[in-house]
């Protein structure tokens, strides 16, 4: 008998059938993959299983008995834990308080801080995560927050654990730690559901797979050992997915850099950072969680104080005050890794999200922005980036993750940036949309844009970057010229990550 089953589940939103009699079966002592393109219904199904949504049809069964969950609390009480794709940490609480939130230890009616520290440390140690349980979660990077979410789910010791894109913002090293924990849970008889767009991870740790397409199950509990990667992708997209082939692109190494960092230090702790990005070049920043990559990008945008060294844009030393100054004065754009909180205004239309960076350019007297001018510009970028919308007036929050990311990118392209920092561009994006993004980034560089690419996805880095700059502990550990051969590049990058001190001329 299965441990958990969602049988012929239906969910309808206005104008959209999100789930169409979808079925999911989880066995004890197994890791089951749930796959599908963006918008296929994966997150909707998880939200029904955890009580966030109520199904319009079908049944949920736990140990063969029908169950009804009116809230996430009821689902958790029944032994179902979840790590959502969107982080759900409480900003005002510490790391330890967030991990043990569902069962805070008390003594004589008061919260027992000592036990919080001890028990939270236990779950952090499971992930080899060196964090202080008393640290506020507001101080964490996106990747650290993701790992705390995972520790939080582990602390509940659930019989069924749902992992929705758990490795989206973490590097392969952190992912390996997670996979060791998943193996322990499997051996203990838990049922683990693993949702990921990284098929190499799916084939590495999962036993069975369910594939959703357009809200329906096109494969139910298939054995992964009997399937190839191409067969799985074919089920997801409805046709054989062709491997991405990017056209040749060269970088003029004699061209003056658009962006230069010389011995830069920041208030966050960077020391002696040297970096250059030329027109038409993609420079990758790679490193483990806490390496300081995103923090360096934010310092370049005036969001953190630069305490030493020099930043030069087009050969001139600059002090960038804020994001507006970065864009207006220096033509620097930033596609953030945190698209739902920083990248798009979820409650605003697609049109407003794209046009926000150029309203001053479109505006007439008294700040009036002609609707026709805005609509024409928005239509241009909706078509150029292939953003799937019912109308430019559609709210950005109703789009799939891939389309939200395209909207986030579109606003910077509309502003005619010349230097673009792209942070984790394909987190939570399906294989076909990811290829479209890779092609888009490649084409932007081919047209002369200088791109600083931050990604925890090493295959993505090796696909796109011309050079890979490796960071650890807020320092540059070395640099590797990319020959796009995964085996040799991954070995060189990993060697630099673990180097004891920065190396010179690693390329």
UniProtKB/TrEMBL annotation:
Protein name: Sugar ABC transporter ATP-binding protein
Domain of life of the native organism: Bacteria
Keywords, alphabetical: ATP-binding, Nucleotide-binding, Repeat, Transport
Keyword Transport belongs to the record: yes
Residue intervals of the ABC transporter domain: 4-240, 248-498
Gene3D superfamilies per UniProt: P-loop containing nucleotide triphosphate hydrolases
Annotated SUPFAM superfamilies: P-loop containing nucleoside triphosphate hydrolases
High-level lineage: Bacteria, Bacillati, Actinomycetota, Actinomycetes, Propionibacteriales
GO molecular function terms noted in the UniProt entry: ATP binding
Keyword Transport: yes
């Amino acid at each position: 008998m299965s441990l958990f089953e969602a049988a012929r589940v239906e969910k309808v939103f206005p104008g959209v059938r999100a789930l169409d009699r979808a079925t999911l079966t989880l066995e004890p002592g197994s890791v089951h993959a749930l796959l599908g393109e963006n918008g296929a219904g994966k997150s909707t199904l998880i939200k029904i299983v955890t009580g966030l949504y109520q199904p319009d049809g079908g049944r949920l069964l736990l140990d063969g008995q029908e169950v009804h969950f009116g809230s996430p609390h009821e689902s958790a009480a029944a032994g179902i834990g979840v790590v959502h794709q969107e982080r759900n940490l409480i900003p005002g609480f510490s790391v330890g308080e967030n991990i043990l939130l569902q069962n805070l230890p008390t003594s004589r009616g008061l919260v027992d801080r000592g036990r919080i520290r001890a028990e939270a440390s236990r779950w952090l140690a499971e992930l080899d995560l060196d964090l202080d349980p008393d640290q506020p979660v507001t101080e964490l990077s996106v990747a650290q927050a993701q790992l705390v979410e995972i520790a939080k789910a582990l602390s509940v010791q659930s019989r069924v654990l749902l992992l929705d894109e758990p490795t989206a913002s973490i590097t392969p090293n952190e992912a390996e730690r997670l996979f060791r924990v998943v193996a322990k849970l499997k051996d203990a008889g838990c049922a683990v559901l693993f949702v990921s767009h990284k098929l190499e991870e799916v084939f590495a740790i999962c036993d069975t797979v369910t594939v959703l397409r357009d809200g329906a199950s096109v494969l139910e509990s298939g054995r992964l050992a009997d399937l190839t990667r191409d067969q799985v992708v074919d089920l997801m997209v409805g046709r054989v997915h062709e491997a991405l082939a990017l056209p040749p692109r060269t970088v003029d190494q004699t061209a003056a850099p658009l962006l230069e960092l010389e011995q830069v230090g920041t208030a966050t702790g960077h020391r002696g950072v040297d970096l250059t990005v030329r027109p038409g070049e993609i420079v990758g920043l790679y490193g483990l969680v806490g390496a300081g990559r995103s923090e360096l990008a934010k310092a370049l945008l005036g969001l953190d104080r630069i305490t030493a060294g020099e930043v030069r844009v087009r050969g001139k030393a600059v002090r960038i005050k804020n994001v507006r100054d970065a864009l207006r004065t220096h033509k620097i754009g930033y596609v953030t890794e945190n698209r739902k909180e920083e990248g798009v205004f979820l409650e605003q239309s697609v049109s407003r999200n794209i046009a926000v960076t150029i309203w001053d350019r479109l505006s007439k007297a008294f700040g009036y922005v002609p609707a026709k001018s805005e609509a024409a510009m928005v239509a241009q970028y909706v078509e150029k980036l292939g953003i799937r919308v019912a109308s430019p007036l559609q709210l950005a929050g109703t789009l799939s993750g891939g389309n939200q990311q395209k909207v986030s990118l579109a606003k910077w392209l509309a502003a005619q940036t010349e230097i673009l920092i792209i942070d984790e561009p394909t987190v939570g994006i399906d294989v076909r949309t990811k290829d479209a993004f890779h092609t888009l980034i490649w084409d932007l560089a081919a047209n002369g844009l200088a791109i600083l690419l931050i990604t925890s996805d090493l295959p993505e880095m090796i696909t796109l970057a011309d050079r890979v700059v490796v960071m650890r502990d807020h320092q540059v550990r070395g640099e590797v010229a990319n020959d796009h051969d995964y085996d040799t590049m991954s070995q060189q990058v990993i060697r630099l990550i673990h180097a004891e001190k920065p190396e010179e001329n690693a390329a």
